[in-house]
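ok trying again, last paste got cut off:
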Amino acid sequence: MTTLDRLPLWLDLSRSHGIVRRYFVVNGFDGALTMLGLVIAFYLSGTEDLDLVAGACIGAALALGISGSTSAYLSEAAERRRALSDLQDAMLSDLSGSLHSSASRAVPWLIALVNGAAPLALSLVIIAPVLLARSGVALPFPALPTAIVLGFVSIFGLGAFLGRVAGTAWWWSGVKAVVIGLLTAALILLINR
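nice, full thing came through this time. structure:
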């Protein structure tokens, strides 16, 4: 059985499906909102320097990805070690060669991957117009406003995903997420006045 074949079993044993989803949404939302804030601030500043915009946004995206991965791994590895120890104490046996043991080692890596990849991937989607325009690709619309639209679309998508998970109206959950994005944009506008 390969590692990928064992992954569903490890997630079931550790009851981690919900944790993986939450980390994806929480850190994905962090990435999307951070990029949206950066792009709006650059747009309001009137900058035409796409190298500056791309550099700042990529730096922030990488920092979010690294922070998400390392913090998730460290906290989840500690929690999984504790849970395995508690299970061993309850069962009065050594579980070091068991599926529970392998799950307690593997699941933190998966959670770290999801927690780091979500903000990085969403950030790159949002700043794609900036990266394309910087590379000389002719876009039908200016790069920064397009990136702002992609930021709101990404935030709506995360909200809609949560609505589907909760079994509620996905579109309403998406709208609520966009309202958070709009409030963030309003605060940025207020600060930049």
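cool. The chain has a mean pLDDT of 88. Residues 3-191 form one domain.
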